[in-house]
Design goal:
Length: 662
Amino acid sequence: MRSPLIPLTWHIVRSSGRRGLQSRLLAAGAAAVGTLVLLVIVAAALGSGARADRTAWRTPQPAKHGTAIQALATTYVRHEPVTVVSLAQLPGRSGTPAPPGLTSFPAKGEVYVSPALTSLLHELPANQLADRFPKVSSYGTIGAAGLASPDELVAVVGRAPTDPAVSRAAEGSTVSDIDQAARAEITGFSGTHASVFTVNDQQIALVGMALLMMPVVVLAAASGRLGAARREQQLAALRLAGATPRQIIGMTALETAALGAAGALTGAALYAGLLPLLAEIPYGIGGWYVSQLWVGLPWLATVVVAVTGLITLSAVSMLRQVATSPLGVAQQADPRRTRIIRLVLFVVVLLYLWGSTGGGQLSTRQVIGLLLLFYGAFWLVGPWVVDRLGRLVGRFARGPATLLAGRRLSDDPRGAWRTVSGLVLAGFAAGFFAVSMVGMDGSAHRDQVAVAGAHASQVRTLLRDAGVTATFDTVGEDDWDGLLSGTPGVVAHISGGGRARLDTAVTALTAANPARPPLTQDYVTAGDRTAIGRFAEVSTATLALSFLVATTSAGLTAAAGVLDRRRIYGLLRLAGTPLKVLDRARVRETVIPLVVLAGGTTAVGVYVSYRLNQAVGASINMTGVLELGVCVAVGALSMFAAIGGSRPLLRRVTEDAARSTD
């Protein structure tokens, strides 16, 4: 016998009218936004790992019976790293395969450069960059297979085995040379050690992904409950007419799954269409190749199914009262109280988090797990806090708008929590990132260029010929505070400063020691600057996307709340309540829990950032106080804008108050 669920569900959808259609479109739109954001952050996490893998071939992998010598060196221009891979085929040995991005192993005197480096070589004067490489009539091009980003600066130079750039490369290495300079005999390019400029990208992106995950989940869950009040009334009537709980659940699941799938597929289509634009957004070493941001069909299907399932589960989870007490739902006699067990569990989780962050450095996986646990704890306690706030506000209210707001908070604390939860959780991200790790000063080595193993007279002659004025210090093995870190050599203090003069000095002094490029402040601080820079970039992206998702969630929930409560608003209008009072009550029932809860999560975010900085020995970024103020202001303006966007809808649903109460 054919199941009546599909035709009955379709009949209810068709008969729900324009208001019901609006709620369903809002739900589908929320699902689309959630899917889009989720796919973007998954793409960033997966793509950053793929980019790191593309840099591993540059670090030589030692072999017992090598066929060639590979040397890695790093120089800087305009404060950006230029990775130089020098290769020399050993005589009498079998041929060495071509490195990634090249069609053949480079012969002596050949120079291959990335497209971005080609542009820079033509843009800058030769004495600032091109003179660091062998003179050639034309440069070869490194293909995408050998690059992590289209903006990366990479050069592959073919040399003779006796050339100091390969025969004596990385001699007298210092701490600063780790991952920036190396030499070994190789048989191929199967290295597994990613570049220092990409090795931490994925881990930091995963932290941002964890911080964004819960706001996205909140948005998806909220979209499943849009129009919940009207749906409950319809299903309660069907339940009283003889429908079974299984049929009620089946109808709800069928409707919300269809809406969720439609919205999720729309979000997936938007993600695919926006890939070329997303690839232009820089992260770390630069932009992306489109293929790096394509998550693949399995991940695409997983995200679509996950969002659809979450929306469906969110809608079905609200049917307990409809199934067990349909008459109470039909009469709207269900005050949705919360239990104190939520607070108890929240305190237990906080104590566990306190103990877990107290000792030792945490791994990326542990940090992500603790962040998700914290978000879950706040999601659990949020409705309980809103319920108690509503009771307090209702008890001490001195005006009708505040009284209505307090009553709404205590009558439906879960619904009020869903409106503000996105920005409440975004407040944690704002507090966490606003006082995060600061960058290194590095001013002690500003405008300095150091050459290991060089003589002062040689350095003075090279700089004079290049037209650069400088003073000189000769350092020995006992000088560990300078650029050379205990390696004998010469440090030149460039007069006049400026990026162009510094690049000219580096280029001129490259000839002083062909085995090791000159060192600058950029070189010795590369590791710390890279990690902190990535963290700052992820901070900015996470905050922006958090507020986008949270504002979208708040706006959709506020609009759906107007549609769900149109009968109540109509009755209040018939009773003589001014529209202005209804609108003020609507704003206050959002602002009150937002101030209390968002203030709490922001404070916790600041504390967690402080503990993390303490664990890694970093200081607190005091200038982040201003950034935090900006984040709070943006969040407040976003919330008011989201609520204000549904004000015309409130006016329309109360224009014909008598009809709205039918």
